[in-house]
Write a structure and sequence with these properties.
Elements: H1 2-20, E1 23-31, E2 37-40, E3 44-49, E4 58-72, E5 79-85, E6 95-96, E7 98-101, E8 112-118, H2 121-130, E9 132-138, E10 143-158, E11 164-170, E12 182-184, E13 188-197, E14 204-210, E15 228-236, E16 240-251, E17 257-269
Parallel strand pairs: 12-17
Antiparallel strand pairs: 1-10, 2-10, 3-9, 4-8, 4-10, 5-6, 5-9, 7-8, 11-13, 13-15, 14-16, 16-17
This protein binds calcium ion (3 copies).
One calcium ion binds near residues 165, 167 and 260.
């Protein structure tokens, strides 16, 4: 038996570890909105946007790659100089780049060169704020063709594992199968509906319904992972076998719906007939 407990423990632990690290890496690209661009003794500014980044995306790094060609050799090689946030609050605040690869010598005529620059954390935040940034290249004379510019942000998207559980009791009995507890006809019946968030994300818009029209009162409509609430309903016992099913539904932050249902039963002892065994029909004898 000890070995079996150990195995169960190890399997539970492995499941927890797998559960905890379910994130997957993602990279998103955006290409600058320009045609091959000819710049002569003037700076080049362009806007670059990323599309379709999930709202819960956690960025870890971002970089911009710029490819340009020198037509007429200038005094200096051009360099990616400034980054301008397109967020209106901080627009026009120039930010120098941290470039991991900058040409150390003047490029030759007609030579393509590439610069790769890393964005700093607060620049990445600007990018996530509205998915777009303005870039500026200083050219210092000469003629340059801007070939392309690619903006890439990499990070992770937390995966969702939403789950919900409901356990419904009649007068404190789970009573999933009939007949359930015996209750005298006309007595008060108390139903409890314990709803638990069994997933790893917050559930909201939680509703609990009863298929026999019992009014179910809950104290809250959202649950953090691992937490529970007890909802309740009440009614008057009727004679005979009775069954009702409680159903709980909820929604994850990404809009996934989860649902669970649980039944409970009771057997209503008819007042006028005294004790009646379930399943045995009454015989009415006629004269
Ligand atoms: Ca259940
Ligand atoms: Ca149950
Ligand atoms: Ca039950």
């Amino acid at each position: 038996m000890k070995g079996r407990y150990l195995l169960t423990y190890l399997l539970s632990y492995a499941a927890l570890v797998l559960f905890a690290v379910q994130v997957h890496a993602e990279c998103y690209n955006g290409t600058g909105f320009f045609d091959p661009y000819e710049a002569y003794s003037r700076d080049v500014t362009w806007r670059q946007c990323l599309a379709d980044i999930p709202v819960d995306f956690v960025a870890e790094s971002a970089e911009i790659e710029l490819k340009a060609r020198v037509k007429n050799w200038g005094w200096h090689y051009p360099k990616l100089q400034d980054l301008l946030s397109s967020n209106t609050n901080i627009f026009n605040i120039p930010e120098n780049f941290v470039c991991s690869l900058t040409p150390s010598t003047h490029p030759e005529e007609n030579e393509f060169y590439t610069i790769v620059c890393s964005l700093q954390p607060h620049q990445i935040q600007w990018l996530l704020d509205d998915n777009c940034l303005y870039f500026k290249m200083d050219t210092y004379g000469g003629t340059y063709y801007l070939g392309y510019s690619t903006l890439t942000v990499c990070g992770s998207v937390p995966s969702e594992n939403p789950g919900i559980d409901i356990e419904k009791d009649t007068n404190g009995y789970d009573a999933d199968i009939s007949p359930g507890p015996s209750i005298l006809e006309g007595d008060q019946v108390e139903w409890t509906y314990v709803v638990t968030n069994t997933g790893d994300v917050v559930l909201s818009n939680i509703t609990v319904t009863d298929d026999q029209g019992v009014t179910v009162d809950c104290t809250q409509s959202s649950l953090v992972p691992g937490s529970s609430m007890t909802c309740s309903g009440s009614g008057t016992a009727v004679a005979g076998q009775y069954a009702n099913v409680g159903t709980a539904t909820g929604g994850s932050p990404k809009g996934t719906s989860v649902m669970d249902a649980d039944p409970s039963h009771y057997y209503g002892e008819a007042k006028s007939q005294g004790k009646v065994s379930p399943g045995i029909p009454l015989l009415l004898l006629e004269d």
